[in-house]
Design brief:
The structure is a homodimer. Chain A is α/β, with parallel strands linked by helices. The first copy, chain A, is 25% helix and 26% strand. Chain A has 2 domains: 4-123 and 302-331, Quinone Oxidoreductase, Chain A, domain 1 (Alpha-Beta Complex), CATH 3.90.180.10; 127-276, NAD(P)-binding Rossmann-like Domain (Rossmann fold, 3-Layer(aba) Sandwich), CATH 3.40.50. In chain A, the strands form 3 sheets. In chain A, strands 3, 4, 5, 6, 13 and 14 form a 6-stranded mixed β-sheet that branches. In chain A, helix 2 crosses helix 3 (156-167), helix 2 packs across helix 8 (283-296) and helix 5 (202-209) crosses helix 6 (223-230).
């Protein structure tokens, strides 16, 4: 084991768009686990739009500060254990931050089953898959035959949420940026239609793609796409509020979409926010169901793996700009 | 019976604030009922903020047009019947419009029990009471000990919703405009606290009045008060979206409040819009429960009765400016 290791520090809190100079690569002494702790070797760091939101202020976790090692979840392997129930070689998912080694309390860690490929533990069998599953099924409550719209549909969560809606018998429409992503949605992931939000009037394009209105909207982006969906919702529609990526990478969030709350009233809509951790007691059952669909080929998993710890800042900046398809992660070891 | 009667026509669709010149008093021939219809003599016209929203565009009913008799619900008495099940003297609530006599199909009418005072049929036992009941209990789902905030709390719906929350064992905070209304809420209607939204920083005042956050917000107004509540919601809070009176009397509705959808996600909020007609099958049970509370004195009913058909335009304009306390109606006969 090395005596020092590399880590990436959030050097400065961005006031507007995130840029490379907000990060700093540094070398630190390799930490040693205390009683009840484990030393983890980070294998793959998960890139998530929420990483950027953590820099804006308190969310479901406290805000990041300048000088902190950048926070982030990762698939990691136990290198040394001073805790019962975890042994060297065991796999866990933990908030290690962006570094090669991390010491974390074992209390909240769950040993993961080995899976092939390992990366699935961070995509479909990780937070992304579970977020798609609970957000769609619990907040969206789609019924067969209904129309489901998913935004950021080529992203990690969206690409799975849309496919789950199709598996549940819904007409599925994805919103994504650019013709290439839209083609992927319909040609490879089985979406019934795709709307390119960069191509002009999203509200009108959604009306054409959803002639009976939108019964369920799985919202990963907020902002203008949410507004366009609000105006196309069917009576008694449900909106699963998962994330607001359109609003993370800038100054303070702008005003909310028009139609709030007017259209919520007249269309009797329900908007429900959720955080996947709230469903932790039901993750095992969800994972078993996801596994069945992946193994049958009904659910296709797209991953976007970048190599090297030093590439984490560029990987996150690129994710916020929408350059990834499927679940983005960085291979650290 | 008169051969002609008076009615008020919406002469022009307002582009901004509603004003007397948008209405015109006229005389028309008294209509005669056809087969399956009844002739109604209008007793009390209900004034509702939604009357103004109907001029903006389609809501849960089609939009009003210039030249239409102004729409509105009223307590009315059957003057002549050509329909089974309804006889002269029977009381009904119907969308008669603003006029002294109206012919309506009997199909959708329900005979109301006589009640003392009659006006209660238009306030606590009418749409206002039922809206407070279903909005609070079905969308808000308050639990004893929780904090419930109601806006337009001195209004017809709000004054009842807040009292229902108190009856359910909640800490109840009303938002209203001006010191006099706020004093009424705490001194007469049993609210635990009141916030005057005209007195300055509503977000801060709500934080002081709701130190543990808001569990249920019954939203009658939208706009800035909704925004102030969003920032003070407790985790897993519920917002019952009932109306948006802050946005009816002007040009096109402005942008929605900041914090949508960001705070919906991080606080796991649920926003649910509703229209009281959706609960029609459960009105009888709700009315029975409301009656128990009124008769025991637990639920106080405030009414604001103005005399004379010709005063309807001023009564609506004043209601939109917030001049009423409790349920406003105009006595026509």
């Amino acid at each position: 084991m090395t005596q020092t290791h590399r880590q990436i520090v959030l050097a400065e809190i961005p006031q507007d768009k995130l840029a490379p100079e907000h990060f700093r690569l540094s070398t630190a002494e390799c930490p040693a686990p205390g009683e009840g702790e484990v030393l983890l070797r980070v294998l793959y760091v998960s890139l998530d739009a929420a990483n950027r939101a953590w820099m804006q202020g308190a969310t479901y976790r406290s805000a990041l500060k300048a000088g902190d090692v950048m926070a982030g979840g990762a698939l990691a392997e136990v290198a040394e254990s001073r805790a019962e129930g975890l042994a060297p070689g065991d796999l866990v998912f933990a908030d290690t931050g962006w570094r090669e080694y991390a010491v974390v309390p074992a209390r909240h860690l769950t040993k993961l089953p080995r899976s092939r490929p390992l990366t699935h533990l961070i995509s479909v069998y990780g937070i992304a898959g579970l977020t798609a599953y609970f957000g769609l099924l619990e907040c969206g409550k789609p019924k067969a035959g209904e129309t489901v719209v998913v935004s950021a549909a080529a992203g990690a969560v969206g690409s799975l949420a849309g496919q789950l809606a199709r598996i549940k018998g819904c007409r599925t429409v994805g919103v994504a940026g650019g013709a290439a992503k839209c083609a992927l949605l319909t040609a490879e992931l089985g979406f019934d239609a795709a709307v390119d939000y960069k191509a002009g009037d999203t509200r009108r394009a959604l009306r054409a793609a959803c002639p009976d209105g939108i019964d369920v909207y799985f919202d990963n982006v907020g902002g203008e796409v949410l507004e366009a969906c609000l105006f196309n919702m069917a009576l008694h529609g449900r909106i699963a509020c998962c994330g607001t990526v359109s609003q993370y990478d800038g100054a303070a969030p702008p005003h909310g979409p028009r139609g709030v709350p007017g259209l919520i009233v007249t269309k009797r809509l329900t908007l429900a926010g959720f955080v996947v951790m709230d469903f932790a007691d039901r993750w095992p059952a969800a994972l078993a169901e996801l596994r069945t669909w992946v193994e049958s080929g009904a659910l296709k998993v797209r991953e976007d793996v970048i190599d090297g710890l030093e590439n984490l800042p560029a990987a996150l900046i690129g994710l916020l700009a929408g350059e990834n398809v499927g679940k983005r992660m960085v291979k650290v070891a």
